[in-house]
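step=encode ok
step=design start
structure_in=
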């Protein structure tokens, strides 16, 4: 039987020396999907520069990755070993830029640092020192994980993904649905108003007395509020639009008549709430 699921994009930020870890991240996410997607109605979709970028000219490569791939991702998993990466215009590496730009959005970020043994002379010392400096900086910014083997990384990541699903509010679809459906009366009314009605209630809310005055003339009714004649035009079509706007805001209980001949109206509490939301 078919079912619906919400897709969350997971960006894999990593330099070129951790290709095995990138494959493990994808394998862990795919395995989680196989076991949990139907229950949680969530798909964790792995995304990375190595699989989702395409040729494009006209901007710095990292800016293209940020705009086309990174910005739409919901979770970032960053992995380092001996390489820090290639510098960009603003950061010491593209991986660092991806991590920092993602952190700015307030979305969750998971960082991993490998402590696996390295064959002497097989790595760039300057790059390794940059990784160590970045790791040191991260100590005061949150919690990261160190691993000493590929097997340890795979197990830790599997556990941490489940913890994130269980604790991050964005993965709680029931709570998200409730929040999305929690529409206030003012929001509900606002969504139903036409442009002229929105303009009229906004102007009326800014009137020092919160009043709309109807002035009867030979040409018809003039709607006046906040020192303005809202429909003082000879075009009958436009006058009809504003007459209809009066009906909309009155029927929506944003204004109420205060005299018998219906020549003066006052903005209601709901009217002010709607006007404040515009």
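sequence_out=
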């Amino acid at each position: 039987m078919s079912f619906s699921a919400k897709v969350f994009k997971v960006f894999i930020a990593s330099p070129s020396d951790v290709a095995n870890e990138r494959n493990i991240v994808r394998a862990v996410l795919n395995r989680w999907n196989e076991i949990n997607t139907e229950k949680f109605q969530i798909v964790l979709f792995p995304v990375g520069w190595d699989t989702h970028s395409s040729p494009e000219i006209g901007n710095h490569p990292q800016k293209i990755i940020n705009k086309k791939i990174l910005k739409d991702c919901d979770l970032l998993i960053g992995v380092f070993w001996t390489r820090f990466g290639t510098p960009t215009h603003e950061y010491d590496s593209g991986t660092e830029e991806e991590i920092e730009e993602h952190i700015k959005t307030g979305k969750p970020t998971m960082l991993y640092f490998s402590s696996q043994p390295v064959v002497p002379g097989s790595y760039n010392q300057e790059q390794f020192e940059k990784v160590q400096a970045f790791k040191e900086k991260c100590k005061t910014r949150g919690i990261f994980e160190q691993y000493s083997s590929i097997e340890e990384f795979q197990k830790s990541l599997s556990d941490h993904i489940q913890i994130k699903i269980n604790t991050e509010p964005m993965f709680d679809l029931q709570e998200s649905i409730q929040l999305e459906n929690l529409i206030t009366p003012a929001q509900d009314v606002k969504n139903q108003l036409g442009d002229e009605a929105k303009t009229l209630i906004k102007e009326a809310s800014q009137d020092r007395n919160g009043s709309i005055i109807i002035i009867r003339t030979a040409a018809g009714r003039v709607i006046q509020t906040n020192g303005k004649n809202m429909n003082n035009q000879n075009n009958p079509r436009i006058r009809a639009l504003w007459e209809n706007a009066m009906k909309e805001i009155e029927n929506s209980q944003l204004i109420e008549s205060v005299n018998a001949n219906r020549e003066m109206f006052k903005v209601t509490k709901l009217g002010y709430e709607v006007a404040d939301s515009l």
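step=design ok
step=annotate ok -> The chain is about 45% helix and 20% strand.
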